[in-house]
Amino acid sequence: MFLHKALRLPSTMNSQSKAIARANIALIKYWGKADSNINIPATGSISITLDALCSETVVSFEESLSADEFSLDGESRPEYVPRISRFLDILRERADIKTRASVISKNNFPLGAGLASSASGFAALAAAASAALKLEISPRELSIVARQGSGSAARSIFGGFVEMHADRSKDGEGSFAEPLLESSAWPLEVVIALTDRSEKAVGSRQGMNRSSATSPYYVAWLDASAKDLDRGRDAILNRDFQMLADVAQSSCLKMHSVAMTTQPVLMYWNGATVECIRAIQKLQQDGVPVFFTIDAGPQVKAVCESSAVQHVAGALQAVSGVKEVILSGLGAGVEWG
Ligand code: DP6
After folding, report:
1. Which has the closest alpha carbon to 45: 53, 36, 37, 34?
2. Domain range for residue 223?
3. What's the total number of domains in the chain?
4. Measured from the CB, is residue 29 less than 6 Å from ligand 1?
5. For a designed S-S bond to 154, which of 99, 147, 240, 270 qualifies (C-beta 3.0 to 4.6 A apart)?
6. Does residue 85 fall inside a structural domain?
7. 176 C-alpha to ligand 1 centroid (Å)
8. Does 282 lie in the same domain as 228?
9. 151 lines ligand 1 (CB under 6 A)
10. pTM of the predicted model, to two decimals?
């Protein structure tokens, strides 16, 4: 899996590679940083990688370029270039080159609406760029690199159930993700209820930095995280759906409590978000194995056992304000094409 298939262009200075990475959703959330410079999260997190939401990225290092270029879904997006350039610099430094790159990326889902586009985007970028540069890099190192683009991207390097470790060392080498359980061992399904397709006003990065500076609940959130991680990991390793449901919903609601008590207020939900939570609670009362989680946006992700997926999808589709439901199984880690 980690033998890079890089396609060399005729000139030895130019090289190109393509990678695909999938989005992930956190069941035990990351919200807050220990170090903003090298993007070390303040807490660990646990996620599932999704099969249905992916980013495909082609990176070409070209001697003829005087600056990095980025296009997303067929449109040039210069506003993202500074963040992408800083990220590529990490890999350029490792490869000891200065060559600029063209980055062409495609997502099969709406950008910035709380569907983890930065996770799949930076994981695909890290994988494609390191392959194009022919870097010898282990999965763990790739996860450490991806983290510096976006914390959640470190988790999208891997498939199935994934745990991201909070850092124990100052240089960030202890802050990486690793697989916890393969998807085939517990093939849960996810129903995503899209309640708004527009980009969120305040992204995760800005939001969590604001929360750590202003929410009176931020310290309590950090304190609760270690226990939630232990419970989440145990629930996954024992395939205990009820235990996972309880701890994942609790982690989600704690994260949003911190967001809502941030100044200025971070209210990521809309009315349909709340109605989806109520619909899922009703399903739970009826004995359906399902729970909700919500990231920094208004979409609701219902995680369920595979026997329940049609039932859950029907219930969420019927909620007023739900524009579309997307079904997804659990997906694989990064792949090179
Ligand atoms: C709510 O990974 O987007 O999705 O590291 O600043 O790029 P940066 O943040 P990002 O934050 C994700 C926040 C979250 C919860 C999670 O995925 O754990």
Report:
1. 34
2. 189-329
3. 2
4. yes
5. 147
6. yes
7. 14
8. yes
9. yes
10. 0.94
- Do residue 109 and residue 28 come from a single domain? yes
> Whose Cα sits closest to atom 4 in ligand 1?
295
The answer to whether residue 6 sits within a structural domain is no
Q: Are residues 85 and 140 in the same domain?
A: yes
d(CA 287, CA 201): 36
pLDDT (tens, 9 = 90+) of the chain, 337 residues, equals 333 333 333 334 579 999 999 999 999 999 999 999 999 999 999 999 999 999 999 999 999 999 999 999 999 999 999 999 999 999 999 999 999 999 999 998 766 555 767 999 999 999 999 999 999 999 999 999 999 999 999 999 999 999 999 877 888 999 999 999 999 999 999 999 999 988 767 999 999 999 999 999 999 999 999 999 999 999 999 999 999 999 999 999 999 999 999 999 999 999 999 999 999 999 999 999 999 999 999 999 999 999 999 999 999 999 999 999 999 999 999 999 8
- On whether residue 123 sits in a domain, the answer given is yes
Q: What string of H, E and C letters represents the secondary structure of 54-74? A: EEEEEEEECCCCCCCEEEECC
Which position has the token pair 């850092």?
A: 167
Q: Token match 């992930």: residue?
A: 24
